Amino acid sequence: MKKLIAAVLVLVTVFALMIPALASAGRYGGTDMWVNCADGKRLNVRMDPVSGSRIITRLNCGTRVEVMEDLGNGWVRIATDEYGGYVQKEFLVASKPGKYEITERADNFSRVVPYTVAAQALNGRSDRSVALRAKPNKTAKSLRRLSAGDQLQVIARGKTWSQVVDLQTGMTGYVANDYIRKI
Question: How many alpha carbons fall within 13 Å on the CB side of residue 164?
Fold first, then answer.
């Protein structure tokens, strides 16, 4: 009887340890990942794991995919609800990118008649500052931390980011639109 109870406890323990692994598996048995291409471009899904292979489709940044197999050469086999194929692994991330993590494409920006704005505190907290970035992406190099009230001149505007000139330093960079206000 003791052996039976011990065997049941071992099986329950093994099953409990497998739950996180099973929970992270996607619909097709793969691992969920998300597309995050540089400069807001779309990711090519190819017929074969080679750069010159035929393109099956292109996926937008933020699209969920399931990685079915890592080929170990920089390519992975993926599945989506509509397509399967191969993509370069470097353009996939483990969690869905937020709106400031996806780099806005250069052709998404419209030149504007320059106007002055003030930087706002990050999340409304005066002790937290927003960054002037080298590219329109929150993971891009920070050129300088802006204080609330620092004046900038907007020279181009995108959906999520604005290209600005820092009036204090003369540097050109990018600031998320949610953290500037027209003055």
Answer: 31
CB 164 within 8 A of CB 132: yes
pLDDT tens by residue, 66-121 = 999 999 999 999 998 888 899 999 888 887 776 666 666 766 788 999 999 999 88
CA atoms within 13 A on the CB side of 121: 6
Distances (CA, A) of 45 to 56, 79, 161: 6, 10, 28
Alpha-helical runs (H) found in the chain: 2-24
Do the Cβ atoms of 130 and 176 come closer than 8 Å? yes
Domains along the sequence of the chain with CATH: 2-93 (2.30.30.40), 106-182 (2.30.30.170)
Whole-angstrom distance, CA of residue 145 vs CA of residue 142: 7
What residues have CB less than 8 Å from 178, skipping those under 6 apart?
Answer: none
